Amino acid sequence: MASATGGLTAGMMDSTAKDTRLRIDRFIKETKLANQLVAKWFNRKEDGTMDGDLVVERGAYGATQMEYMVAQGAANKQAFKDAVGDEMIPNTFVVFSKLNFVENEPVARAILDGTRSSLTDTTEFLGKLALASAQAVYNSTKDGYSVWTTSWLYQLVWNDSIQYRFWKELWIDDRNVDSLKKAAFDTTDLFQLSYVGSEKSRSLVAANLEQGGVAEEVIHKATVRNLDATIAKLQKKFDVFKPRVPVLTTAPITAFIGMKEGLDGGEKFDALELTVDPKTGARKYKSIATVTVEKGKVWDNRYVPGEQKIPVLQNDSIAPPTTLDRTYFKGSDKVQPGMLLKQIR
Questions:
Q1: pLDDT digits over 135-156, tens only?
Q2: Which site among 115, 157, 242, 336 is 20 to 30 Å from 251 CA-CA?
Q3: Looking only at Cα atoms, what is the longest distance across the chain?
Q4: Tally of structural domains, the chain
């Protein structure tokens, strides 16, 4: 969905923390961002016509299967529409992030100076202890940089009534071009983004020439790491935003998910099996087993493969390097290829 919002956010995130939510809400309304997201899902063209190609690509349908479903009777058409409604469109999210990148030394210096100025009424002995403590804190925190990120999560609203009106009042394809429906889509307020919640994250970045750090590279790496951490917090906090990933292997059970999503071992996941109603074609996921992330076998996917890793401190420690290229799970032998894993809150 990135291309649907490309170029629209320039200059939008320079507000103060107090009014950022209001600015985001106004931005969403003024740009009709929700309409753009729906249009993106259905490859809406300049003449207003739409198709289901992207839904096919993202929804685990084969093109032949989707074409058959749409071309056949009402039951099969409804199954396709239900799949869109139940699985794809409601799981559309937008994350707005505001980042502050600051040098640690001025902040640490201000704290040290503040401590010194407050010692005028303190006994000499206590003053020396307080100053020594403040100096130690300064020495341990003055190097490098800090990245502060706040992210706000929004979800596209898509329910039965919205879906019904979309197909009935706004949908057109190349077989039935309709200028009135095109205009209706352009101006409708039917589509909305609902605020889910927010999270914050902070990273301390160790950056100096001895570690091979280059300022621009450090800023880039720290920004990506901090955004990943904030999104991982959102995924843990809000069940609706939890990722679903396909099972990669079953002996052992593995999947392409890892530290980027906030895993560190011990988390539990449902193994979901896709079932299809033979009469209607309706699809539904059913939990058939529970698996657990193995400690010490979590994939560090927080960096782009092949790039040099810059030391980034999280909770004042640097995670050891790893050669894992996937995360390992232990649990039921009922897990089969093609199933999805979803973290249990």
A1: 777 666 666 677 889 999 999 9
A2: 242
A3: 89
A4: 2
